[in-house]
């Protein structure tokens, strides 16, 4: 049955897989930046900064990704017409906002795992906040943050399937369209599943390699 | 009289708990002061107030001409003149020994890296660790890590060194090497404030010994006076328990 499936069906699925990869790469990148900033803000010395960061993190973590995407694509343009974006950018913004909140929590936990004495030793040497974080706290926190971030990246691959709800044709949406046309949902979604696995398993392997390197 | 540290009416509360209840004290340039006392007496907190690792509830603290108790002291400037050595060493585990020593002089004092490295080598020689310059701290014993921490603090060319129970977390066999480095420093006339349980060290090296209990200075004087002829009952009771 796979032989009959053919290039005509496979091609759009591969294109979808590439777009999924693109979505995950972009939102993983921006999510990491958001996560770093808000993770540091969560433990900032200035209380209002902590409150803002905590509000963002808690609010976003309390929302389904689906709602974030629907809100960005359908609701916000009604309030702010200039914030109307095409599907691709909307998908990236939505997933980045979602990823940022989770990575912020990972970063916060990692920063808190660095012993207090490290920051104190840096302070005692006359290092201000920026130097202390840049050279002493963050390098140690990042080692702790990488393994759970890789785990999160794998769930981001899967969460990216939800952008099909705003009709962005990534792997899941491509699968739905193809199976509609060829009336072969079994084979089509088996191929889709195989492609998702091909995207996420290397990330898991990388994570395992990284953790082994740490020991 | 030229006090480099002068403390007046220093008070420190942690919430409702009064840890320091009015400390008055001066430290002269080139003086070695050892602070002794039972745990919970506030001696570590006192030391940590001298570089503002603890905020000060009330009183005046002046270190090397900087008034720490004014509204917004230039903390990083003050701390560059005040070296600190911790009970738990707190060496930076992600940096090699030499980089531990050179980090702050390069990034904070902005001294030229070549010159800093040269100075760092000299300091590692002083603490006897030139062969470990390229090693990560996790490969070192506690005593070696503490000697790295001392070299790291000295690299900032501080005017005064604070030691917070520097040998309390060490294996007994490595205590001596750390004390030896501190004795060398004292001989070179470094100004030092040392919170310690090493009475032998205090007796031998200190110019003055301060006995603290319950957040106040109970008694102070030269080592012979404090150890051989303590005037206060609480001092006598403490010393009889540990000597």
Please give a handful of descriptors for the protein shown:
heterodimer; A: 215 residues; mainly alpha; MetI-like fold; 8 helices; 84% helix; flat; B: 243 residues; alpha/beta; four-stranded antiparallel sheet; 9 helices; 37% helix
State the end-to-end CA separation of chain B. 33 Å
Q: State the major sheet of chain A.
A: none
Read across the widest sheet of chain B, the strand sequence of neighbours is 6-7-8-3-9-10
User: Ranges of chain A with pLDDT <50 over ≥5 residues?
Assistant: none
Briefly note the structural class of the backbone of chain B.
alpha/beta
Kindly report the oligomeric state of this protein: heterodimer
Task: Name the beta content range of chain B.
Answer: 25-35%
Radius of gyration of chain B: 18 Å
Per CATH, the architecture of chain A is Orthogonal Bundle
CATH superfamily name of chain A?
MetI-like
Beta-strand fraction estimate of chain A: under 5%
Order of helices and strands of chain B: EEEHEEHEHHHEHEHEEHH
What do these coordinates show?
The complex is a heterodimer of chains A (215) and B (243). Chain A is mainly alpha-helical and 215 residues long. Chain A has one domain: MetI-like (MetI-like fold), CATH 1.10.3720. Chain A has helices spanning 2-42, 47-61, 65-79, 87-113, 116-124, 129-159, 171-182, 185-214. The longest helix of chain A has 41 residues, at 2-42. The model of chain A has no long low-confidence stretch (mean pLDDT 93). Chain B is α/β, with parallel strands linked by helices and 243 residues long. In chain B, the strands form two sheets. A six-stranded mixed beta sheet of chain B has the order 6-7-8-3-9-10, with helices on both faces. A four-stranded antiparallel beta sheet of chain B has the order 2-1-4-5, with helices on one face. The interface between A and B is medium-sized, with 18 and 26 residues.
